[in-house]
Amino acid sequence: MVETMKIAIERVKKSRLSEVDFSNIPFGKIYTDHMFMADYRNGEWTNFRIMPYGYMPISPATPALHYGQAIFEGMKAYKGLEGEALVFRPTDNWRRMNISGERICMPPIPEELFMESLAALIDLDRAWIPDTEGASLYIRPFMFSADEYIGIKPSDDFTFMIILCPVGSYYSTPVKVRIETHYTRASQGGTGYAKAGGNYGAAIYPAKLAQAKGYHQLLWTDGKTHEYIEESGTMNVMFVIDDTLVTPALSDSILAGITRDSVLTMARSWGMKVEERKISVKELIEAMEAGRVKEAFGAGTAATIAHLELIGYNGKDYYLPPIESRTFSNNVFAELEGIKRGLKSDPFGWIVKM
Ligand code: COI
Fold this sequence. Notes:
Mean pLDDT: 96
Distance between the termini: 23 Å
Strand content: 25-35%
Radius of gyration: 21 Å
CATH topology of the largest domain: D-amino Acid Aminotransferase, Chain A, domain 2
Bound molecules: 2-OXO-4-methylpentanoic acid
Number of strands: 17
CATH superfamily of the largest domain: D-amino Acid Aminotransferase, subunit A, domain 2
Low-confidence stretches: none
Helix content: 10-25%
Number of domains: 2
Shape: globular
Structural class: alpha+beta
Largest sheet: 9 strands, mixed
Number of helices: 7
């Protein structure tokens, strides 16, 4: 439980908002005026505070810096027609954060702490929510162990924080991915299903090798056989093969994406055939060669619905059909954007107003 949530607020003396060019917002480089912070000490969450965004003192012996005891989430808020913040499925992120936390030996965050701190921070930095097309306020909750101890053990102390940044698209063009069959993002029994910092850090080198060859990202395969498609690291992946939406079934090496779930829920509600199952690289390549892969896209909070332009495998690039022909992913993108921006009804109850 949290002690009654009283959040101490220290406001900035002068907002930086007027310095931001909202017509050109990069992803993840601009942060709002304030940030939220809470400490976990002696078995309870305490010291809730919102302060000016900025550097913070941290012990050089913090285990998060040495052993990667750090987890995070990603959510988005949009500006509603009356200026309210429309936050997309935040309780699902809260739930997933606690699933990640358990795997990394971290204490659960009570729902009240997660939601109330988010609401208070968003309220303070409401003016930062972009209303330009394709832009939104990206919300990054994260937690790290905060002991001053470099032995390896479950930590006692933790810090939970939320920072906010106005963002544009994560991928500004259709995405070129390469199927990775040497390096491994996540293995059976590992931490792939957790949104743990280490998963992302370890994926940078293999992705860099692919980027040097002109790809944006990898399409990871399973760590044991490298025969089955898993996810793309920055997003889950989905294919329309013939008339069926196919995506890798969740496992302990795939992140349970909230956008992934939203797309599947929407597709099922439209009566589309949906299969969550294993997809082998062989099946995918053969289906692409036969022209049966009508659409291929990534689904993620940052990436939203990101069309794949091509998939590279064994030195060959397999181009996917023109973006204009991709009826399902274009419709799902438009519908999701409409719901997120409050322009369409929200039949699944995904929006929380703050
Ligand atoms: C997100 O989509 O929120 C993520 O965490 C992906 C990250 C690569 C930006």
